[in-house]
Structures are given as C-alpha cells and as structure tokens.
Amino acid sequence: MSINIPRGTQDILPGEVELWQMIEEKARELCEKYQYQEIRTPIFEHTDLFSRGVGDTTDIVQKEMYTFEDKGGRSITLRPEGTASTVRAFVEKKMFGLPGQPIKLYYMGPMFRYERPQSGRFRQFVQFGVEALGSNDPAIDAEVISLAMNLYKEMGLSKLKLIINSLGDKDSRNAHREALINHFKPRIGEFCSDCQNRLEKNPLRILDCKQDRDHELMQTAPSIIDYLNEESKAYFGKVQQYLTQLDIEFEVDPNLVRGLDYYNHTAFEIMSNAEGFGAITTLCGGGRYNGLVEEIGGPETPGIGFALSIERFIAALKAEGIEMEINQGIDCYLAALGEEAKDYTVGLLQQLRLAGFSAERDYLNRKIKAQFKAADRLQARYVAVLGDDELKNNKINVKNMETGEQVEVELNSLVNYFQGLKA
Ligand code: HAM
C-alpha cells in the first residue's frame, strides 16, 4: 500500500517551485532595500512560549498547535507563527542592547497549525514576516505596511485591499473590555462554551469566534474605535497620515481584531479583491505588539510586524491571472557519439559548469537523435557534439540552436569559446 502526503500539506514540484523562488527572492530584495535582516529560529519551541506569547484563549493555542512531549518529557510545539520566536530570540540574545536600534528582522519558513484544510488554508504553510523592535514611531507602522504592499505590487498584484484598525493602548483596551463584558454577559448562555470561557478572560476573542459569527450581538458589539483615548487616537491618526503620504489606500475597519492576543494600537490585514479568489481572502496580517517583549521576559520594547503566506500569495497571483516568465533554458548540451567521446564529456561538462555555464549531458545512453531531443526539452541554446573522430582531432562541433549555425571549435578551448559568446 502506498503512503500519501499528510492532509493540509503540499509537495512543491519543479515547474511550480520557480514561482516560490521568485517570491522569496523578491521578498529578500525588498528587505535589503528596507533594511530588514534575516533571522532564523528553530521550527519547534517550548510550548509555553506560544501560550504566553500568542495567548492561551486564542484558537491557535487552544485548538491548532502541534504539541508533543519529547523524549526528555518537555512540552514542545511546532511553531504556529514567527513573532513569538523572533521576540524570544530578541530577548534571549539581548538584541535590545545592540547598537543600531530599532532592530528590524525578517523570516521565511514553514509554520504549522492544525486547522481544517481548505483552499488557502494548510496545516503546514510558509510565512514571510517582518518584525521591527524598539521603535514607537508611527512612521515605522507605515513602513511595515508599505513593505507588504510593495511586495505584492512588485509581483504584479493590483486587486488588493488594505484594512486597518487601532486596538488602542492598555487604558483604551481596558475600557473596551469592560464594555464588551457588559454587552455579552446578559446573553452569554447563547454562545459556545469557548466564548463563555472567553467572557471574563478575554472578551475581545469572542469577536473572532468562528462558531458564533452570526449571533445578533456580534453586529451591535461595542467597537474599540469608540473607546480609544486621546493618545491612541493621535497615534492612529499619524499612521493614517503616513499611509496617505505614501499613496497607500486603506479602509478603517473597526471590527478588525486579529486572532492573536499580543496586538495593540495598529492592526491591519491585506485582502485580495480578485474574483474567484475563494472564501479566505486575507493575504497578510500584522500589527503592533507593545508589551510582548516584556511578556517574554525582556525590557519594555515596542514592536510591530506582519506575516503573509506564500501559499495565499500564489493563489492571489493565479486569481489575477498573473503569469511569471520563468527564466528557462540551459547554455549548452553536450551530445556525444561513441564510447570515448562519452567518457570525455564527463570532464568537459564539469569544466563548463565550473566556468559558470549551465550544462547537461546524456545519462541514458541515448542515440544522437534522442540526445538532440533531450537538448530541445531543456531549451539548450547550444549543442556541442563530440564524436570519437573529433576527439582524436581535438575538435568539437558547436551548433547554435536558434540560428542553426554550426562552428568547429578547438576542444580544449570550448570554455573560452563560450566565454567569448557571453562577453
Ligand atoms: P496571522 O494572521 O495568524 O498572523 O497569519 C498571518 C498570515 O499567515 C495570514 O494572513 C495568512 O497569509 C497566513 N496564514 C495563516 N494561517 C494559514 C494557513 N493555515 N494556511 C495558509 N496561510 C496561513 C501571524 O501569524 C502574526 N505572527 C503576524 C504578525 C507578525 N504580527 C506581527 N508580526
């Protein structure tokens, strides 16, 4: 019996992987321009990091984590997201003491959530994310948002919608929390058991409950926007001013609460407007998380970031009908006729490759005609044909596959010949 791939995971095969590589390259390129540096953290962490960081009343922590006990009896979790790990590393490696604040980091790698798989939702998915730690300037909120928007735009996406909200500072959140408790308490019996638990612990989470989404009290729930104090309002105003200055269109959505507990002030999501994108339209999510560094044991440090998955990025490209031109073709295919010539191409191939050319030869003992077919399949720009006779005379025949033109080249100067073509 054959063994299949686990539910909610994907194999990314050649032909498709090139698009992944292009997005990854573009993301790295943009991070270089914006001055974010890469951080690589482990794929698993102590479970406590996520219950404390992401929040133990969130769906992620309550229902979606891949948690197991290792052979040493420790509770370990495959990372469901990258912010908690980045902050853990920031604290543990004392990056708050480094020169060059704020510390601006990015990461790219697999995340794991035990969710019900559907289009755009996987159990293993790859996030690209950035985190800027150590600045309370609303200009960096705008910078982080613009990085995400520009990445999408540079890959050709245009049907994008940015929604933003402010979750305010601690005081604003506390005032809103009270209002939410008062709103839901009298009828909390009509809600799911999770929401009943959330009421006192974290009533904001009720707002993104998937089960009770359609309850009438959801529509009339007090909105955080009405509870923002002056400072929080001013901060949010500045973020909007900078976004406008950067020509980034946005909509304020007072219902945007995000599914993780660490947020305050700015929260945002980027959605795809493309027709036929499917039910899940969020491409990217992020926000400010002042207080998280302290929660993980570090000094008071503000932070903001976002994460997006490459899977949904690709789905959006497909929905908008954007096709990337993938740079294909190889420089040279070495075709050989005769045993000695075949042996010789083993070394010649290596010479070409080490000199910087993409090159291939036959490994299936094919006839010369089939070798030309293989060269065609690889879109070889040149085919160099070596027979036993040419070998004796130190010659090789080079055919330009575009023009059909053929030249005879000294065998031991084949590499020079190709270098001359490139120059
Ligand atoms: P999040 O909203 O949970 O936020 O996830 C961010 C993005 O990851 C989503 O917008 C989506 O593109 C992708 N994503 C999440 N779950 C899945 C899934 N099951 N399948 C495919 N893609 C998925 C965070 O993870 C925060 N750490 C973002 C952040 C960084 N906030 C501040 N800094």
Please provide the count of β strands: 16
Radius of gyration: 28 Å
Q: What's the mean pLDDT score?
A: 95
Terminal-residue CA separation: 55 Å
Characterization of this structure:
The protein is an alpha+beta fold. Helix content is 37%, strand content 22%. It has helices spanning 17-34, 47-55, 59-63, 83-92, 138-154, 170-184, 193-201, 216-219, 230-245, 292-295, 310-319, 339-354, 368-377, 388-392, 414-422; strands at residues 37-38, 44-46, 66-69, 75-78, 103-112, 124-133, 160-166, 251-252, 264-272, 282-288, 303-309, 330-337, 359-361, 380-387, 395-400, 406-410. Strands 1-5-6-11-10-9-7-8 form an eight-stranded mixed β-sheet, sandwiched between helices. Helix 1 runs antiparallel to helix 5. It is elongated and about 95 Å long. It binds histidyl-adenosine monophosphate.
Please provide a brief summary of the model:
The chain has 15 helices and 16 strands. With 423 residues, the protein is α+β, with helices and mostly antiparallel strands. The chain is elongated.
What characteristics describe this protein?
binds histidyl-adenosine monophosphate, 423 residues, alpha+beta, five-stranded mixed β-sheet
List strands and helices in order, with pairings.
Elements: H1 17-34, E1 37-38, E2 44-46, H2 47-55, H3 59-63, E3 66-69, E4 75-78, H4 83-92, E5 103-112, E6 124-133, H5 138-154, E7 160-166, H6 170-184, H7 193-201, H8 216-219, H9 230-245, E8 251-252, E9 264-272, E10 282-288, H10 292-295, E11 303-309, H11 310-319, E12 330-337, H12 339-354, E13 359-361, H13 368-377, E14 380-387, H14 388-392, E15 395-400, E16 406-410, H15 414-422
Parallel strand pairs: 1-5, 7-8, 12-13, 12-14
Antiparallel strand pairs: 2-4, 3-4, 5-6, 6-11, 7-9, 9-10, 10-11, 14-15, 15-16
Helix pairs in contact: 1-5, 2-4, 5-9
The site of histidyl-adenosine monophosphate has 27 residues, from strand 6, strand 10, strand 11 and helix 11.
